[in-house]
Amino acid sequence: MPQRFGRRSKRLRPFPNVASYPTQGIALCLFMLVLSHLSTTAKAFQLRTSLSSSKFSHRLRRVQYVKMASSSSSSFSTPAPSSRSSDEGTFPYRLIDSHHHVWTDGEEPFPYANGQSAPPGLQDSGTAEKFLTLAAAAGVERSLIVQPILYLYDHSYVRSVLQAHPGKFEGMLNANPTLSPEAAAAAIVRLHGEGFKSIRFNPYIWPAGEKMDNDVGRAMFAEAGRLGMPVGLMLFKGLHLHLPEVNALLSLPRSLHPPPPVILDHWGFFHQDGRDVPEAWDALLSLAQYSHVTVKISAFFRVSSQPWPFHDLAPRLEELVRVFGSERLMWGSDFPYVTTMGGGYAKAPRTVLEWRQAGLLPSLTERDYQNLFSGTYLKVFGGQ
Predict the structure, then answer these.
(1) Cβ contacts of 343 within 8 Å, gap of 6 or more
(2) Dmax over Cα atoms in the chain, in whole Å?
């Protein structure tokens, strides 16, 4: 027993014999029985927890992905307006990224679609967390996540990112042309309710022999118009090859619903196999007649014959501003591809500023730069 303060003797008294104190002995026995029961209960609980963990591991990993992404949201914030003008290292305009993808390593709980694999060197480089880090350093305020082909029609990973960062991202879903017109339209409505506010038409996933203006394509295009969802066109092999079907969609009757805004990816892909294709460029310029068509000035590395800063694209931008107007052009990075092909994410928005500094954009005004880096995006997708 512990020594009592104030006593002169320091001798320790022996622990009393339990048998000599019947009441205390009984109490101690009861205490030991209760302790033994609690120990047995704890072990049983531990066993049940161990057995049930595999049942919930899939769900827990999905939650973990969302929490990890959510923990990065504080780094993806709007730079203070004053810092844009006073800090030399800060981007001088409000900056919104109109085109990028996000993906995981393809393992559960977000496996890739059958036959799909990440590009070499990018399997572990496309997560939302990595994008958020690069975007914050570049001064990006908001962005559009385009559903990657790796997941095809499984939108669960992008949906988890949208839910983890409300107000930070917009989502662009993959249109599913393999369904009936009614089912395809219903899928758009469902995904719209889950946070996807725009839709991507990719003609290379249409059934063989079918085109984007078939019955399914028309039904999805009309549904997008009814919901006010912008439609992005991913014409990877060149806009000129798809011009008839694009014109057909853009010319659909407007009697039922207004036409949706239409966005052409990556300068209309006028550059193919290392050379410029005049037919593709002319096709792009011809679509300026439709007032609801905008162009993404994105993925410079895909349409240039030169290394960064891609000076050969500066005259192209000047022509697009002249023909479309800057209020119909928007900048995009094409992350994560830009990290290995385009000189890095930080250089992507600064490319245009390099052109200006080199005197290659004499006709562009301050308003043009504002439209290019955020104004057009806000007009198309909403927000302030």
Answers:
(1) 301, 307, 308, 309
(2) 107
pLDDT in tens, 132-151: 999 999 999 999 999 999 99
Mean pLDDT of the 72-78 span? 48
Q: Is pLDDT of 72 > 60?
A: no
Is-contact 297 267, C-beta < 8 A? yes
Tokens 């694209």 appear where? 313
For 231: left if phi > 0, alpha if psi spans -120 to 50, otherwise beta; the answer is beta
- Token digits for 229? 């969802």
Q: CA-CA distance, 134 to 264, in Å (whole number)?
A: 25
Q: Give the C-alpha separation, 98 to 130, whole Å.
A: 17
Query: Angle, nearest 10°, between helix axes 22-71 and 156-164?
Result: 100
Output phi, psi for 116, to 5 deg: -100, 145
- Helix/strand/coil for 115: coil
Asked if 262 contacts 233 with a C-beta cutoff of 8 angstroms, the reply is: yes
Structure tokens at 98: 């109109």
- In DSSP terms, 170 is beta-bridged to 144
Residues pairing with 234 in the sheet = none
pTM to 2 decimal places: 0.81
For residues 10 and 255, give the distance between their C-alpha atoms in angstroms, rounded to a whole number.
Answer: 102
Mean pLDDT, the chain, rounded, equals 85
- Write out the E strands in the chain: 95-100, 140-146, 169-174, 196-201, 231-233, 262-264, 271-272, 275-276, 293-298, 329-332
Please name every residue paired with 329 in a beta bridge, in sequence order, or none if there are none.
Answer: 295
> What value, to the nearest 5°, has the Cα angle with vertex 142 and ends 136 and 147?
105
The answer to whether 334 touches 99, Cβ cutoff 8 Å, is yes
